[in-house]
Design a protein that fits this description.
The complex is a heterodimer of chains A (589) and B (235). With 589 residues, chain A is α/β, with parallel strands linked by helices. Chain A folds into three domains: 337 residues, FAD/NAD(P)-binding domain; 108 residues, Flavocytochrome C3, Chain A, domain 1 (Alpha-Beta Complex); 130 residues, Up-down Bundle (Methane Monooxygenase Hydroxylase, Chain G, domain 1), CATH 1.20.58.100. Chain A has 18 helices and 25 strands. In chain A, the strands form seven sheets. In chain A, strands 7-3-2-11-20-19 form a six-stranded mixed β-sheet, with helices on one face. In chain A, strands 13, 14, 15, 16 and 17 form a five-stranded antiparallel β-sheet that branches. In chain A, a hairpin with a 5-residue loop joins strand 15 and strand 16. Chain B is α+β, with helices and mostly antiparallel strands and 235 residues long. Chain B folds into two domains: 102 residues, Ubiquitin-like (UB roll), CATH 3.10.20; 126 residues, Fumarate Reductase Iron-sulfur Protein, Chain B, domain 2 (Orthogonal Bundle), CATH 1.10.1060.10. A five-stranded mixed β-sheet of chain B has the order 2-1-5-3-4. In chain B, strands 6-7 form a two-stranded antiparallel sheet. Classes of the chains: A alpha/beta (589), B alpha+beta (235). Chains A and B meet through helix 3, helix 4 and helix 10 of A and helix 1, helix 2 and helix 3 of B.
């Protein structure tokens, strides 16, 4: 018999978005935060470089320039109304974090320190601007801990190590969520008036990723399966500088402090691809540049045949590196035996961020379809959501901002909603799909291995849904996904224990990985243009006439997922009339 | 290269008394982390081996374990840093009840954290913009603020093993982070909490915490600062 908890709000995920929403709600309503790892371990904590706002503490800055950079950075797919909200709210949001106690690096005057970051410019693209507020190179760590500490202060109720297994949506209304308590193996049902998804990304669908092992796209998959559409799944960000082969993130901050990318012959190759901002070009451009350099024979070959380029920090000086980039230095030394003060760091693109996800409006409501109708009682924020503020490519430091701005907005929306909403009916069969899945996995034929299927998926995604895509590759990808989904049905976990069964967790996560991979590959095959991070070698140009629109994909059990489209919000161009800055142009840096 | 891991197993039903199990793993590299080998064991040999991990690069604090009798993050210690000619011993963090294999119950660890009020206490109205803080004052708390709550320190402290009420290095480090944060107004309150027999005075400067901290924080030094602050009540 599953335990049923009756609460007002359930938040799934305890990263920045989930915690900020929980802090907003907990003082008014009974709120339960489910998290599959202990809350402080959430992936927000691994963010390094910074969180941006036009505070103008070091150089003059304006929110409208931030809006411009974000719109252009998104390759014009970002919704302009949402981007405007985020960038206008940014200064308040960061000051609020500082008031909550977040430690920041400071200017000599004692203000929050800001540094340069990729794609962030002054005066509509004139030159890089210091907009990224930072705390050494562990901004995410201190933000995550500050939010966790404030959640403790506000008495937020956590259900640590509860793994989400199902979302209950009936008749267009979300009634709750189902999760497994890792400690006991028991199924718990959370009956709630509102459920918020803050479950992060899916980097582990790929072999080389900056993402933690928790990044398996559970929330996106379960929402999709439960009837919510997914938006813009084809847009996967590959961060240009992951440690070679390991994928561990080397923050863009390294380039913000003056680091330079070099190819085999020592050339600063970004001068050719982005003459104005060079190494601080948006991530999709830099990743493509690196792969192109490698393809054209100017990469550096490792003994095992893989290729990389160099990130040169040697000219920055020990003081800057020790003070501003200590974590990155630690990684390079620990994992590759490289001392960044004296040697160049081997780097290559690494799967990093999901621009797409569960579609929402600017208030956190999850959309039921491309017409903007909402699913009652279901909310989403953070990386798992798609508002869309990042469009086809995200600028660095905009994600830490996204999570606190939209986490708070969703929190406020839920506070108001719960005050007036009746409790939905909890169907008697709420736990059934979960108990059936557990039963199948614990007693299955066992002729297939979770780890093997997962590895095959990850290798295929790197090859066929990576930086550069082709029609053939994407069709192969979909075919492979079908094969793996079929084999997945014959997986049995070898651990038959009930206490902390991580084998079971990995088998459940595999379903999520296959689900999001399916959405990514299908959406990518469908979009016959190149925009932002989605590069089609067979359709290398951006096609605004046919493709200036969001992809909405709805799950069908037979694999014939339905695709519809939603217009991009072009408020700043069409409504406010600023054609000069907000009408789509070729993206040149 | 080949390595043998002797891993402590515990399952309340299967191995209710902890027992060591040996695994031989072929084709490992000197630059593989202990965590990589544990994954290979789990994925290739025994799926029932349970351990916590997430970021795999020393930030999330999930994978604290006792490796060759020393607390470390499994993701941050490479095989080349161990003597792999002999079996590598892998055990859960000591001082906490074992839930399963290498997974320990950290409830008490987090409870101690809450005791010291681990959040900014500032009753006065904040300014319109950020509270000013000099670079020197900001850096003062950087070392303590980079703690990842991995529990290697508290688990390595012999006082933890014998005294369940001892606040522990991590909670006290967090207390230091706030007491010496120039924006905080709760110093007196917190000093009152830690100026107690099982508070900072239970620290006997054993230095085990310093030895094991994966972020190389001078924890003992921070606790000594707290002792001085308790005595002088001058922060």
């Amino acid at each position: 018999m599953a335990t049923v908890h009756d609460v007002d709000v359930v938040i799934v995920g305890a990263g920045g978005a989930g915690l900020r929403a929980a802090i907003e709600i907990s003082q008014r309503h009974a709120c339960a935060v489910l998290t599959k790892v202990f809350a402080p371990r959430s992936h927000t904590g691994t963010a390094q470089g910074g969180v941006c706002a036009a505070l103008g503490n070091e150089e003059p800055d304006e929110p409208i320039w931030h809006v411009y950079d974000t719109v252009k950075g998104s390759d014009y797919l970002g919704d302009q109304n949402a981007i405007e909200i985020m960038c206008n709210d940014a200064p308040r949001a960061i000051i609020e974090l500082e008031h909550m106690g977040m430690p920041f690096s400071r200017t000599p005057e004692g203000r929050i320190g800001q540094r340069r970051f990729g794609g962030h410019t002054r005066n509509f693209g004139e030159a890089p601007v210091k907009r990224a507020c930072y705390s050494a190179d562990r901004t995410g760590l201190v933000m995550q801990h500050t939010l966790f500490e404030n959640a403790i202060k506000h008495g937020v109720r956590f259900f640590h190590e509860f793994h989400l297994t199902d979302l209950i949506i009936r008749d267009g209304r979300c009634a709750g969520a189902v999760a497994i308590d890792l400690l006991t193996g028991e199924v718990h049902v959370f009956h709630a008036r509102a459920v918020m998804m803050a479950t992060g990304g899916y980097g582990r669908a790929y072999r080389v990723t900056s993402n933690a092992h928790v990044g398996t796209g559970d929330g996106m998959w379960l929402a999709w399966r439960a009837g919510a559409p997914l938006e813009d799944m084809e847009f996967v960000q590959f961060h240009p500088t992951g440690l070679w082969k390991l994928g561990i993130l080397v923050s863009e901050a390294a380039r913000g402090e003056g680091g330079i990318l070099r190819n085999r012959v020592g050339e600063r190759f970004m001068e050719r691809y982005a003459p104005t901002v060079k190494d601080l070009a948006p991530r999709d451009m830099v990743s493509r540049a690196i792969i192109t350099e490698i393809r054209e024979g100017r990469g550096i070959a490792a003994p095992d045949g893989t290729q990389y380029v160099h990130l040169d920090l040697t000219h920055l000086g020990r003081e800057i590196i020790d003070e501003k980039l200590p974590e990155i230095t630690g990684f390079a030394r620990t994992y590759l035996g490289v001392d960044p003060t004296r040697e160049e760091i081997p780097v290559a693109p690494t799967t990093h961020y999901a621009m797409g996800g569960i579609p929402t409006d600017t208030e956190g409501h999850v959309l039921a379809d491309h017409t903007g109708r909402i699913i009652d009682g279901l909310y989403a924020a953070g990386e798992c959501a798609c508002v869309s503020v990042h469009g086809a490519n995200r600028l660095g430091t905009n994600s830490l901002l996204d999570i606190i701005v939209f986490g708070r907005r969703a929190g406020k929306t839920m506070v108001a909603y719960v005050a007036g909403a009746d409790a939905p009916t909890l169907p008697a069969d709420a736990p059934d799909r979960t108990t059936a899945a557990m039963s199948r996995l614990m007693k299955g034929s066992g002729s297939e291995s979770t780890a093997k299927i997962r590895l095959e998926l990850q290798e295929m995604m790197m090859r066929d849904c990576g930086v550069f895509r082709t029609e053939k590759g994407l069709r192969d990808a979909i075919e492979k996904i079908r094969e793996l989904q079929d084999r997945c049905r014959r997986v049995a976990v070898s651990d038959d224990g009930t206490v902390f069964n991580t084998d079971l967790v990995e088998a459940l996560e595999l379903e999520s990985l296959l689900g999001v991979a399916d959405a990514i590959a299908t959406s990518a095959l469908n979009r016959t243009e190149t925009r932002g991070a989605h590069s089609r070698e067979d359709y290398p140009a951006r096609d605004d006439e046919h493709w200036l629109k969001h992809t909405f994909i709805s799950h069908r059990p037979d694999g014939a997922h339905e695709i519809a489209y939603k217009d991009v919000d072009l408020k700043l161009w069409k409504v406010d009339g600023d054609e000069k800055h907000f009408k789509p142009k070729p993206r040149i840096y | 290269m080949r390595v043998t891991f002797r891993v402590q197993r515990y399952d309340p039903k299967k191995h209710p008394i902890p027992v060591f199990q040996s695994f031989v793993v072929e084709d490992v590299e000197p630059r593989d982390a202990v965590l990589d080998v544990l994954h290979r064991i789990k994925w290739e040999q025994d799926g029932s081996l349970s351990f916590r991990r997430s970021c795999a690069h020393g930030i999330c604090g999930s994978c604290g374990m006792r490796i060759n009798d020393r607390n470390m993050l499994a993701c941050s210690v490479l095989l080349k840093d161990l003597n792999t000619r002999r079996p590598v011993k892998v055990q859960p963090l000591p001082g906490f009840p074992i839930i399963r294999d290498l997974v320990v119950d950290q409830t008490r660890f987090f409870e101690k954290l809450e005791v010291i009020k681990p959040y900014l206490v500032a009753k006065s109205q904040p300014p319109e913009f950020e509270r000013l803080q000099s670079p020197k004052d900001a850096e003062r708390l950087f070392e303590a603020a980079k703690c990842i709550l991995c529990a290697c320190c508290t688990s390595a402290c012999p006082i933890t093993w014998s005294n369940p009420d001892w606040l522990g290095p991590a909670a006290l480090l967090k207390a230091n982070r706030f007491i010496f944060d120039t924006r905080d107004e709760g110093a007196d309150e917190r000093l009152g909490i830690i100026d107690a027999p099982d508070g900072v005075w239970r620290c006997h400067t054993v230095f085990n915490c310093n030895e094991v901290c994966p972020k190389e924080i001078n924890i003992t030094g921070h606790l000594s600062e707290l002792k001085r602050a308790c005595t002088t009540r001058n922060v």
